[in-house]
Write a structure and sequence with these properties.
With 399 residues, the protein is of the alpha/beta class. Helix content is 39%, strand content 16%. It has 2 domains: 5-203 and 380-398, 3-Layer(aba) Sandwich (Rossmann fold); 219-377, 3-Layer(aba) Sandwich (Rossmann fold). The strands form 2 sheets. It has an 8-stranded mixed beta sheet, with helices on both faces. Strands 11-10-9-12-13-14 form a 6-stranded parallel beta sheet, with helices on both faces. The longest helix is centred in the N-terminal third of the chain and has 25 residues, at 94-118. The radius of gyration is 22 Å and the shape is globular.
Length: 399
Amino acid sequence: MENRDFVITSLQPWDIEIGSTIKNTAMEISRHNRVLYINTPLDITAWRNRSARINAHRVAAMQGREPRVRQVNDNMWVVDCPFMVLPVSKLPWNWLFDIVNRYNNRRIGKYLQGVIKEFAVKDFIHLIDTDIYRSQYLKMWLNPAVTVYYCRDFVIGDKYWLRHGRREEDKLARKADVVLANSTYFAERFRTLNANTYPIETGVNLSVYDASKHYDVPEDIKGIKRPVVGYMGTVNSTRLDIPLLEQLAMRCPQWSFVFVGPEDDVFKASRLHSMGNVHFLGRKETGEVPAYVDAFDVCINPQLVNDVTIGNYPLKADEYLAMGKPMVATVTHTMRDVFGDYTHLATGCDEYVSALEQALAEVGDEQLRSRRIAFAHTHSWENSVKKIYKIIENYESKR
């Protein structure tokens, strides 16, 4: 697919500090198509946190200190909304929520009509990335050629969405022309709402996670005793199993457990910080992360199994494998269906210890390393976006 226009409305602000599936998808689409990436407007809750890096440009654009449209490359622009929307998540009644949410959508829609006219956007594809509330009625205001709802995560399991999320996501899935889900688990649910539902694997940034490069060992990991069992990403207590990690660290003092990424408050208060073989190295810039993964002996993804994680697609699995690393992860739907032949899967402390021993025994096996890298390369962003193009083209050909 080439020379089409895409408008992307996402739950994820462009200025997020960690790796992002939708940002990488947008960048890949922009190689051959024009893309307008719409930053979610702030509401009063986000405004209270306006000094955060993730909100800084949106605040500046609202105040006229920064342009409302930023050009990212020859084919892509990020658009900031110069206004706030009303908060809706805590509204107690469905009828009141619908009134306020329609008002928000109308305001966003009217603004985007002007942006679309300014850029002479025509016959465009509207890709809605998990933006359940603020994109609910945009199809009516923007009149795209194709509306695609892309569910990348079980966001409605978060408390922010508990009151209205399920109802609104179901509505959005029904009215979309195409639904994409980043796992077969999610696709099963959405297919009951929309027959044009397709599972789509996400991608890995192979220019960043490149096992052929030489990486210097970062200074803050040099002195840590080997073998190193490492995790990289947001260290979040709603997704990672703290009791399991505590058990592993106590049971296996001969291994060093290293976490690279920002922690939430629950992790900061956990017993892990008092254990001599557990090390938290904090947030790193995206370009720094591969050197840390390269320094790990074995990579882990010790997820809690809950509604939020059971069907999600762990992008870090592709990133670990792209670096050729042995990996141990908790059994989930996607880990079993997609990554089962290339990783060690476990449940509970005993299985984790056994799986980690097997993974450590594979360190230095070049044949297995090459096999992991080759598999990860099938999940490039180029391949991921090609699948999206094919699904959209098939839909348009049948209309």
